């Protein structure tokens, strides 16, 4: 493998990745701006937002996981120039996502009262339930948006979702200001106002992305089967067969972070508020790295469809390098500004001190986080999803969480112990997923 080959793949990966990075960043910036603005109300609302977002993220990543299956299926079909399959995947992916969005909303709304059984501070739970119920409703437009977005990205159209997400995030910030504090005649809804702002912005996102796919000429060839007669259980089965293991893997990872928030809630509201600050920052860099992972899925899936296995392997390995470089830079920024960032969220010296230490731990696991998320994306391009799910289960739930519990509650390291457990889990996942991609891509390239 010569240097010029890698340079070419770096360039192609970057041109696909940066719009996806900004688009993925948009999902998490909704939570970031909610937390920034809710934190101005006080420590208790910020803790409630942490609890609510931790629970909502479990539901959201499950839905996102299913939608992510659309991209490698589209990319592989596009590599084979199978436009009939692409057309059927558009219709059936949209229908599957819409139904799943409704089911996830109903499940979340039904189970939200059971938050009271998680042994969290009563005042925090009281604020969290109405907040998270509105977020659950936003799953319906979010899943519709994802269906159109993943379809377009599978065909290497990544910039449009970026523009739409930037617009929607700007709208979300404005609506936060209007609905949290009741400006310009709007009702002052407090932290629930942030959830309503999220819902409205996601409805706008779904409408705009849908208009792009359904009404622009470039996708006209793929709209010929957009009737109920072409709903196909075979294609929906393919989407869920690939998507459910992706969702499982994402649940193992995100569920570990959410359960960590529940354990931190056992320590108190201040620790939970500090956790929300640190996890917000770490989530920003993670979602940006997941944009590189999405580009890896497209590039690896497309080259696999073409049968160009050497290029497929180099596309994946160059994505790993991009993820590691980006996350190293992110970690350095966290170390440099670990004292400054918490002050953007809240004016509570104790919370700020706890959060500043958590940001140092977050900085340490940046490379591992970047490598493991890119590994998942590259393996998705190979349609390898079951073994990565098992790796995530072992890394986070067999190793990471038990280590965190031991360090926190048995050895007295408190919230820092839980975050150290997350560091261990991410590192194990990164090593195993990288080894998995190298092994599988080598098998293909030797053909």
Task: Give the secondary structure arrangement, pairings included.
Blueprint: H1 3-38, H2 43-68, H3 70-79, H4 83-111, H5 122-137, H6 139-154, H7 159-181, H8 191-215, H9 233-265, H10 269-306, H11 309-336, H12 341-345, H13 349-364, H14 366-381, H15 386-410, H16 415-445
Notes on the structure:
By secondary structure, the protein is mainly alpha-helical. It has one domain. 83% of the residues lie in helices and 0% in strands. It contains 16 helices and no strands. It has helices at 3-38, 43-68, 70-79, 83-111, 122-137, 139-154, 159-181, 191-215, 233-265, 269-306, 309-336, 341-345, 349-364, 366-381, 386-410, 415-445. Helix 1 runs antiparallel to helix 10 (269-306), helix 2 runs antiparallel to helix 9 and helix 9 packs parallel to helix 15. The radius of gyration is 21 Å and the shape is globular. 59% of the residues are buried. The model has no long low-confidence stretch (mean pLDDT 86).
Summary?
This protein is mainly alpha-helical and 447 residues long.
Main attributes of the structure:
447 residues
Class inferred from helices and paired strands: mainly alpha
Backbone shape: globular
Summarize the biggest pleated sheet: none
H/I helix tally: 16
Whole-number radius of gyration? Answer: 21 Å
- N-to-C series of helices and strands: HHHHHHHHHHHHHHHH
Q: What is the terminal-to-terminal distance?
A: 17 Å
- Strand runs, count: 0
The pLDDT mean sits at: 86
How many discrete structural domains?
1
Roughly what fraction of the amino acids lie in strands?
Answer: under 5%
Low-pLDDT stretches are none
Secondary structure: helix percent: over 70%
């Amino acid at each position: 493998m010569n240097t010029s080959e890698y340079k070419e793949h770096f360039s192609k990966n970057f041109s696909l990745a940066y719009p996806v990075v900004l688009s993925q960043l948009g999902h998490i910036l909704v939570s970031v701006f909610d937390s920034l603005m809710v934190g101005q109300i006080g420590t208790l609302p910020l803790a409630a937002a942490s609890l609510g977002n931790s629970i909502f993220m479990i539901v959201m990543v499950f839905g996102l996981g299913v939608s992510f299956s659309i991209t490698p299926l589209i990319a592989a079909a596009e590599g084979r120039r199978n436009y009939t399959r692409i057309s059927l995947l558009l219709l059936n992916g949209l229908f599957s996502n819409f139904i799943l969005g409704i089911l996830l909303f109903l499940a979340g709304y039904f189970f939200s009262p059971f938050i009271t059984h998680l042994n969290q501070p009563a005042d925090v739970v009281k604020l969290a339930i109405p907040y998270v119920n509105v977020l659950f409703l936003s799953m319906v437009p979010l899943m519709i948006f994802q269906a159109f977005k993943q379809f377009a990205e599978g065909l290497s159209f990544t910039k449009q979702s970026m523009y739409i997400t930037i617009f929607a995030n700007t709208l979300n910030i404005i609506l936060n200001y209007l609905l949290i504090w009741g400006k310009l005649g709007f009702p002052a809804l407090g932290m629930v106002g942030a959830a309503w702002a999220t819902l409205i912005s996601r409805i706008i996102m779904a409408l705009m992305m849908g208009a792009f796919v359904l009404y622009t000429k470039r996708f006209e060839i793929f709209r010929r089967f957009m009737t109920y007669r072409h709903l196909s259980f075979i294609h929906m089965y393919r989407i869920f067969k690939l998507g459910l293991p992706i969702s499982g893997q994402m649940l193992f990872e995100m569920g570990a972070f959410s359960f960590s928030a529940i354990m931190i809630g056992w320590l108190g509201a201040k620790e939970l508020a500090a956790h929300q600050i640190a996890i917000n920052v770490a989530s920003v860099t993670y979602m940006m790295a997941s944009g590189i992972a999405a580009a890896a899925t497209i590039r690896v899936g497309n080259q696999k469809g073409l049968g160009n296995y050497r290029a497929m392997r180099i596309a994946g390995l160059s994505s790993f390098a991009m993820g590691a470089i980006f996350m190293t830079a992110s970690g350095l920024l966290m170390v440099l500004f670990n004292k400054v960032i918490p002050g953007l969220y809240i004016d509570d010296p104790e919370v700020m001190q706890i959060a500043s230490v958590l940001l140092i731990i977050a900085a340490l696991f940046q490379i591992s986080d970047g490598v493991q998320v890119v590994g998942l994306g590259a393996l998705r391009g190979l349609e390898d999803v079951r073994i990565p799910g098992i790796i995530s289960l072992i890394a986070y739930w067999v190793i990471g969480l038990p280590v965190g519990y031991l360090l926190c509650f048995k050895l007295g390291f408190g919230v820092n112990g839980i975050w150290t457990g997350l560091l261990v889990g991410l590192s194990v996942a990164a090593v195993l997923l990288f080894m998995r991609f190298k092994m599988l891509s080598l098998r293909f390239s030797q053909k």
